[in-house]
Amino acid sequence: MTGADRRALVAGWFSFPDANATAGDLLAKDVVCGWLDAARLPYDVAIDPRFGTGVAWDDADPGRYSHVVFVCGPFYRSDLLRRFERSRLVGIDVSMVHPVEEWNPFDLLLERDSTVAARPDLAFAAPRRRVPVVGVTLLPLAEGKAAPAGYARASEAVHRLLARREVAPFPIDTGLRVGPTDLRTPATVDAAFARVDVVVTTRLHGLVLGLRHGVPVLAIDPVPGGERVRRQAEVLGWEPVLGPDDLDDATLDRAFEGCLAPEAPARARACAERAVRAIGSIERTLADALATPPGEDGSWGDGRRRRTWLAPEGSAPPGLGGLGAAARMLRGSGRRRRRRGRQR
User: Fold this and answer.
1) Lowest mean pLDDT among 64-78, 164-178, 198-212
2) Domains in the chain, start-ordered, CATH in brackets?
3) What pTM did the predictor assign?
């Protein structure tokens, strides 16, 4: 093979469909490919289609390659490279599982670690690419009783949006859960929202906690009429909020791009500042009311109370079904306890 025929094949655990390649393996591959570019050595990458485009390991012609470079990961005693035994074999950033004094298939070994040497992992030198971290806050479908079909469509649309973009989705549930890895306190949930770049949500508090930290929010109100999420966005001055008829891919993409715009964080911070100012007036109103005694007719507050929640004994207030039944049960249990006390 002449100098003009020099060509490398870059391989690693990312070359095989049944291997568990890691992000670190692929970052190390990018480093080595950059080095080969700098050395002006043309190359092909043997890579499984899940991880990119290149050539198939088992279809690569051994006679085409002057060098085969195996990158990253543990390397075991095997005949893995026998197919390319006429090439110059290079091992870079590999962990040699067996003592190299007893077995080493490489003509040039620049190992990450072995019985005779150790070096930093190549992922340290990989090019940095800014990929948005997206907090995904969706109402669990079992809880979307107001519009179950709408919440299902919204969730499907969000998953389609994330699948066609290179983003790092990070699920954040505003509902507190008890478990070994769940976010279990308000502070941990709040901290998660503070560290993402964009929030995509169907929940009111997904909108609130994102904007609170100056994080742009793609908000979806799947309930026809937009009773909660949309109303909150309107009072904050945040837009757009998508409704159940706005879930086509083009509309979602435009809204998401708006959240990635350079000015979007400033708009989100302005909404948070507006909210804090408005909340100050709520506190003052409450303080004034607490300092004001009832009127001569017994009235107090803002005058909107109409006692419409009161119901005759034994009937459930409208719309409270289970709650009314629970109240009756508690009243009944109290009467039973009193009766038992009298019997004693």
Assistant:
1) 164-178
2) 3-125 (3.40.50), 133-275 (3.40.50.2000)
3) 0.76
